[in-house]
Specification:
By secondary structure, the chain is of the alpha/beta class. The chain is 33% helix and 22% strand. Bound molecules: S-adenosyl-L-homocysteine.
Length: 289
């Protein structure tokens, strides 16, 4: 999914091969500088150190990635302190829910990226994950979960995510809900998410391959539903899969997108509210792969 843009269409989302090589990474940086999201991103980078990036730290960031998928090799760049700083920036942008912020601090976002992108894992930005899809920006992940959880004191019961992608948001959701189901329509991404999540051994998360526009009626009703991809409106099938009192958060719109909140107040009553602007990859019908 992903947020942040204002980039010319042909540049977004960036393809994975564009950014995993050094030259490609320079292009990605340039593209990022053209994006609206980058305001947050640059502010975040600077806020993390309290001063602008020095030439030395930039060189450090541009180091070529380790040759193999050795996640431990990235550890110096993705320490807990770096993740904490990311969470602080998300909080500074207005996310207040302590359970959500704690969840963000728990999940190692670098596990969900190609090794070449791992050094950027704790920048508040969406990044490519292949198949023209992106890992969501940490702020929007936190914000959507916060909106979904509003009014709930402890953990949510059963939650559905549509658009697993690399599996990051699903892992965050598993920290704030008893049961999480996540659907992905692109089979290789579904499989990659499975592989990414395996070392984390999350017992309350189930991944499904299929068309999330149909929901997952056999597993509902859901106390919360989050869509990680934008349709013109919320797919009809999802309304009936909401529990009474359940809350759904989805990006909607064609050019201009906004977050939409739907609350099921009674068996036959739903209320809707339009929230802030956002930018996600499109919600598509059917499956691929
Ligand atoms: N949740 C991810 C973001 C993934 S990007 C994260 O944690 O970062 C959005 C994903 O939605 C893409 O992988 C895309 O393939 C998927 N998607 C789009 N339409 C879908 C549909 N109808 N059903 C399931 N997944 C869908």
């Amino acid at each position: 999914m992903s947020e942040g843009n204002g980039q010319p269409k042909k540049r977004f989302p960036l393809t994975l091969d564009l950014v995993t090589g050094l030259a490609g990474r320079r292009k990605a940086d340039a593209a990022a500088l053209n994006s609206r999201q980058t305001a947050t991103q640059n502010a975040a980078r600077h806020a993390s150190s309290g001063r602008p990036l020095t030439a030395a730290s930039r060189v450090h960031e541009m180091k070529p990635p380790p040759p193999a998928i050795d996640r431990m090799a990235n550890m110096p760049l993705v320490s807990e302190a770096v993740r904490k700083a990311m969470v602080q920036r998300v909080a500074q942008q207005g996310v207040r829910d302590p359970l959500v912020l704690a969840a963000l601090e728990q999940v190692p976002r670098h596990y969900f990226l190609e090794p070449g992108l791992a050094p950027q894992a704790y920048v508040d930005a969406s990044l490519p994950i292949g198949y023209h899809q992106t890992i969501s920006q940490p702020y929007i992940v936190a914000r959507m979960i916060e909106v979904m959880r509003e009014g709930v004191a402890g953990k949510l019961g059963r939650v559905l995510e549509i658009g697993t992608g690399c599996g990051y948001q699903a892992a965050v959701l598993a920290e704030v809900a008893d049961e999480v189901y996540s659907i992905e329509r692109i089979r290789p991404l579904h499989e990659r998410a499975r592989a990414n999540l395996r070392p984390l051994r999350i017992p309350n998360l189930r991944l499904h391959y299929g068309d999330g526009m149909l929901g997952l009626p056999q597993c509902g009703p859901f106390d919360g539903i989050i869509l990680a991809a934008a349709g013109l409106d919320v797919p009809q099938a999802l309304f009936d899969q909401m529990a009474i009192g359940g809350r759904l958060v989805a990006p909607v719109g064609a050019g201009e997108q906004r977050l939409k909140l739907i609350v099921r107040t009674r068996r036959n009553e739903w209320i809707a509210d339009m929230l802030e602007p956002c930018h996600f990859v499109p919600l598509r019908p059917g499956t691929f792969g």
